[in-house]
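Feature request, filed as a ticket because there's no other form

It would be nice if the structure record came with a short human-readable summary line next to the tokens. Right now we just get the raw output. Example of a typical job, pasted below so the devs can see what we mean:
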Amino acid sequence: PTYDRRHPFGTTPVGFVHMRTNTCAAGTTLSLFTIRHPLYRLKSWFHYERPTPGFLAGVDGKAAQQCGKQLKRCFPTFEDFVEQGIVPAFQQSPNPAKPHCVRLALQVLHGKIRCTDHNYYNYRYYNLESHKMAKSSGSTRVLVLRTEHLNQDWDAIDSMYRPSGDAVSDHHHHNASILFHNKFNVKSNSQT
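Raw output as currently delivered:
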């Protein structure tokens, strides 16, 4: 989709990249990424993509479905995934209890195999997509929202793009910022 929203850089097409989908037009010059702490992301992925029959039916590809089932057999809990999969892989145990499970954990952790979806489409994938967009446009400005610092990052991005000295814009920004920060019970410099 393209939105004709005016900002300091003129009219900009808006698209998104998520897993197998890239709706960004050729020449996209501005990218907004949301990122999470890698360990929080890993735990969230593990619980979100618990391979239930209904979930696996929606996973694209038979190999990914089989991998999801194997992951569930090897690691019934996240703690099992960490303690019996990741830790032995990094300690290079000579005889791990389940070597095939340790290999699976390491491949999934690094996004080397498509086991369900979200861990395969990881930071490396999005980094490559952003490089493709930059190559097609000549340059791409990348803005990042860190979920652990969401309010500060939104304020910083907003201050970069909001026209300064515009009384109406300043008034709406101030009210929106107060509503946002009150809703999420956070403090911000924009409230002062």
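Something like this underneath would help us a lot:
The mean pLDDT is 72.
Helices lie at 38-48, 53-58, 62-74, 78-91, 99-109, 123-137, 150-161, 167-183.
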